[in-house]
Input
Amino acid sequence: MIYEVFHWTEYRYSEFISLSEHTLHLLPRDMPGQQVVFSSLELRPEPTGLREYCDYFGNRMNSFIITEPHIGMHIKSRSRIRCDPRPSQPPPTQISWEVVSVRCAACDCDPVALEFLYASPYVPYLNELREYAEPSFPSGRPIVEAVMELNSRIHTDFAFDKTATNVSTPLSEVFRCRGGVCQDFAHLEIGCLRSLGLPARYVSGYLRTEPPPGQQRFFGGDASHAWVSVYCLDHEWFDVDPTNDHVAGGGYLTLALGRDYGDVSLIRGTLSGGGEHSLFLSVNVEAIAEDEAG
Output
């Protein structure tokens, strides 16, 4: 399947900005099962010093500076991505979570996985997360089975609430208030897994959505999304989505991988001036058959 992704971000400021500098994670990466056929960025006002490079985790990253006074900015990214079929069921491994934890502790694993074993800025070690996770991880239980139960518990116990948190809300507060958005739920699950010695990474990307039965799909109705990738030795990594309580299979498109949101934030910048600002977002993910892509 081929997916075409359109992501439009527009900022409007109450006062002129004299100078702004930004970094982006808005162009998808190649990875097993996902090949970027085409991608582009359109930036207004015209920036200076636009460059693309790979960050520490192998993600595509862009940076630029806008030196002319401006009272707004828009960023449009377009991509065409070829994806292999992704399973909607977890891998059939029977390896226990304790074996994974012990081997990772002994560094008897993929060295890359060790990058995602430790606390990170948005995912500190919290005793309450370990206590919350432990009922799903009794001795000898297969890691996949345990992770899927934890995934379901987070989906059930935490309410999706856009007003409950913001990007700076500590994970301890997310746990206390039992609400948040996909970013928070991903951090929660990652924190639980790392507290048990299991490597887990934060994935940012897109999820193609379908309208409710009887309603028409409209352009721009999709959104960026976040989920979790878990290391399990013999099957390497598998992805789960606590926001929607299932395996991250077909329709999930990866932009970037990191320890937490801070490593892969879509747009980050510093501004001189600007006052108050408003934000407009539009995301569209369109699936097209291989023979229609040309």
Notes: The helical segments are 97-105, 111-114, 127-133, 143-157, 171-177, 182-195, 261-264, 290-293. The domain at 2-84+265-293 is CATH 2.60.40.2250 (Immunoglobulin-like).
